[in-house]
UniProtKB/TrEMBL annotation:
The lineage of its organism: Bacteria, Pseudomonadati, Campylobacterota, Epsilonproteobacteria, Campylobacterales. Keywords: Hydrolase, Protease. This is U32 family peptidase. It comes from the Bacteria. One of its GO terms (molecular function) is peptidase activity. Belongs to the peptidase U32 family. It comes from Candidatus Sulfurimonas marisnigri. The keyword Protease applies.
Length: 430
């Protein structure tokens, strides 16, 4: 049986490695202005991206290159050079968004699999067939599509791979076709520099052009001012319905500009959901425990399994972002011997260990600290905060760049976390 692919975001080389270590089968990322995440793409050099591809291939994993921006005429020569340069790195596919770039990529790199971006807004068989005939091997369907429509496309085009988003930020506009930040700040979303203006609070006014009178519309408490702020997508509890359909080849997590912890937790949660589906042991509470630990705008299951007119909970009107159930307190280095503090840590704090799936964590009790299990989870308590330079600290904070010694080696990029509380700002951020 061919299992569905888990595709994770890779905004940096570190996030790429973390996504793979925590369960992703493939990642997507880019290098230049032709990627729709310039902020993320700038964090990858060509050398680092090549290293990431080698890292993936050594583990039997894949890397898809995002060349999904909307280029101007003045950029076409640069675009050609970029396509040829990226093809030399031997990635596993290009992700492109427009018919012209699709055709150009097919001409310049004829052997490269081509994935059509969700920016192309494919919702039906007619559009899917056009792009398939042009050389697209996979279509990343519009977020507004339903499983029913996916089945129709697969029935007509059985050799065309279909990819769907299952987690991450939802765009206020139709599959990312938005110009709000262009209007307000001159940053063009469809060329990679969205300013996320839909996440801002807004005030409403009524104007009388004849008298020049302007009235502010006062809102009742609880209605909110985040009128364009969509909740985040979370379909972990619907993996059985998605995979039962038999038409989805890849499930995708959004978020190249999000944190390394986000890359780890989303990969881990959806890896568990996928593996549990094939093992006939679905446990939605387990996946949601992990996903609820992330910062989010509130979660929605959006439109894949329900029709839009049935959805009345897809917007967060009262806040832009809220903390999750947990706060990251540290991340273990690549050698597994020390961790860097990400939040205030004291001796004897109970830190939950979030390690890659199927990795081994040794139970120990020594002069540095203890590692123990409780209720199916693994925890760490440090008896002393011993830095790599042998200095002992009474407490460490996120600004402290001294690696802190662990009582035993942990898997690389293991995260340490603690429950959030009111003092840490778990109330919605206004």
């Amino acid at each position: 049986m061919k299992k569905v692919e888990l595709l994770s975001p890779a905004g940096t080389l570190e996030k790429l490695k973390i996504a793979f270590d925590f369960g992703a089968d493939a990642v997507y990322g880019g290098v230049s202005h032709f990627s729709l995440r310039i902020r993320s793409g700038k964090e990858f050099s060509m050398e680092e991206f090549a290293e990431g591809i080698a890292y993936a291939h050594a583990r039997g994993k894949k890397v898809y290159v995002t060349i999904n921006g909307f280029p101007f005429n003045s950029q076409l020569n640069l675009l050609k050079k970029h396509i040829l340069a990226m093809a030399k790195l031997n990635p596993d596919a290009f992700i492109v968004a427009t018919p012209g770039v699709l055709k150009l990529a097919h001409e310049l790199a004829p052997d490269m699999p081509l994935h059509l971006s969700t920016q192309a807004n494919v919702m039906n068989v007619l559009d899917a067939k056009v792009y398939y005939d042009m050389g697209a091997t996979r279509i990343i369907t519009a977020r507004e599509i339903s499983l029913k429509d996916l089945k129709e496309i697969k029935k007509e085009l059985p050799d065309l791979e279909l990819e769907v988003f299952v987690h991450g930020s939802m765009c206020f506009a139709y599959s990312g076709r938005c110009l709000i930040s262009t209007l307000q700040s001159g940053r063009v979303p469809n060329r990679g520099s969205c300013a996320n203006d839909c996440r801002f609070p807004y005030e409403m006014y009524a104007a009388n052009p004849e008298t020049g009178t302007l009235f502010k519309l006062e809102e009742d408490d609880g209605i909110g001012t985040y009128i364009m702020n969509a909740k985040d997508l979370n379909l972990a509890s619907h993996m059985k319905e998605i995979l039962d359909s038999g038409v989805v080849d890849s499930v995708k997590v959004e978020g190249r500009t999000k944190t390394a912890y986000y890359a780890a937790v989303t990969a881990k949660a959806y890896r568990m959901a996928i593996d549990d589906y094939y093992g006939d042991r679905v446990n939605n509470d387990k996946y949601q425990y992990e996903l609820q630990s992330l910062q989010n705008r509130g979660y929605t299951d959006a439109y894949l399994v329900s029709r839009p007119f049935e959805k009345h909970d897809t917007q967060s009107l009262d806040f832009s972002m809220q903390l999750g159930t947990h706060q990251v307190s540290g991340i273990v280095n690549e050698e597994g011997t020390h961790f860097l503090c990400k939040y205030k840590t004291l001796p004897n704090d109970e830190l939950e260990i979030v390690a890659p799936l199927n990795s081994h964590v040794e139970i120990v009790n020594n002069e540095i600290g203890t590692i123990y299990e409780r209720d199916g989870r693994t925890y760490l308590k440090l008896k002393q905060l011993l830095a790599e330079n042998k200095k002992v600290w009474d407490e460490v904070h996120s600004g402290n760049l001294n690696p802190i010694t662990l009582p035993t080696k942990l898997p690389p990029y293991t995260f340490l976390r603690i429950p959030s509380n009111e003092d840490m700002g778990t109330q919605p951020k206004k």
